[in-house]
Every structure is written in C-alpha cells, then in structure tokens.
Amino acid sequence: MYGKLLFVVAFCVVVVLGEAKNRKCNIPPTAPKKIEKVINQCQDEIKVAILAEALQAASIIDSPKKRSKRETFTEEEKRIAGCLLHCVYRKMKAVNDKGFPTVEGLVSLYTEGIEDKEYILATLQSVNVCLAKAQKEFITTPQSLEEQGKTCEIAYDVFDCVSEKIGEFCGQTP
C-alpha cells in the first residue's frame, strides 16, 4: 500500500516539478525537508486510520449491496493520497478550523524557501483559482466539510489543480 501511495505522491510531484521547454518561472526540483518530515508523520497517522476503518468496515458490511458501493482501486488511491495531503496541509497550518485549505497557508507551503518571484506569483494565482473552484464544487451547505472523507477529496483536488495551474502559469504544460 505504501508503495502505491508513494507512487501517487511521487507522480504528483513529477507533474508539478517536470521539465518543460517554455519556462516562465523555475519550479524547485525538490520539496523542502520540513514537508518530507510531515509527510512521513502523516503516512503513519493515515495507516492507523485506514486499518481502523478497514476493521470497522469488515464488521459492519454484511450484504453484497453494501460491498458494491466501495470505490474502485484508483479512487481509493486518490482518497489515500488526498488524506495524506490533507494531513500535510493541517500540520503545516494550511487549512482553516473547518479543514478547508486557505490561500495564505497553501501559498506559504508551496513557496517555502523559494525566491523566484514569478513562481510565487504563479502559485498565488493557482491557489486562488483552485480554491474558488473547490469552494464552488464542494461547499454546497454549511455542513459540507463534516461529511466523512470530504476534506481528503478536497485536498487531492486542490493539489491536483494547483499543480496543473502552476505548470500552466509557468509555461509548463503536461
């Protein structure tokens, strides 16, 4: 499971940090060490949460109908990666008290140690666009964030969107 999770995270990083021909800003080649440390902590937390959830599901699921509702493996990988990202966002203080990512928190997280002003501007623009999209899509009621797994889904979608938009703004289309 960790191998697949690391693959998903590594793939996301490669997309963000990939080389391109028409660069407008320089995307840093590695994540800051602080983020790596937090990712490792979050992996441990998520492992425990997933095991507990699996045990609970095994004791609750007693009909084929309930089993058919399970997500496909690809969606499960996205959920796990999203939970890891949400944990990182939370530990790096990039979410508000409801668990929704903040502009200030994400920009700080993605630009820590970066001096390239064009990259910082691209990050700010990307975060603004992606958070507006996430709010429109995920925050349909005042209780929307209380739904189980919602913050993981939001974190994954926001990360995916920000990664793509930074690439676009920096002249690096996939």
Describe this structure in words.
With 174 residues, this protein is mainly α. It has 7 helices and no strands. It has helices spanning 2-17, 33-60, 64-67, 73-91, 103-111, 117-138, 150-169. α6 (117-138) runs antiparallel to α7. The two termini are 27 Å apart. 24% of the residues are buried. Residues 2-11, 13-20 and 57-73 have low confidence and may be disordered.
Number of helices: 7
Largest sheet descriptor:
none
Taking pLDDT < 50 over at least 5 consecutive residues as the criterion, the unreliable ranges are 2-11, 13-20, 57-73
In sequence order, what are the helices and strands, one letter per element? HHHHHHH
* Beta strands, count: 0
Termini Cα gap: 27 Å
Radius of gyration from the alpha-carbon trace, in angstroms? 17 Å
Proportion of beta-strand residues: under 5%
The gross shape turns out to be globular
How helical, in percent, are the residues? 55-70%
**What do the pLDDT scores average to?**
76
Strand-pairing-aware structural class: mainly alpha
Key structural traits:
globular, disordered N terminus, mainly alpha, 7 helices, 0% strand
SSE map:
Blueprint: H1 2-17, H2 33-60, H3 64-67, H4 73-91, H5 103-111, H6 117-138, H7 150-169
Helix pairs in contact: 1-4, 1-7, 2-4, 4-7, 5-6, 6-7
Describe this structure in a few short sentences:
This protein has 7 helices and no strands. The protein is mainly alpha-helical and 174 residues long.
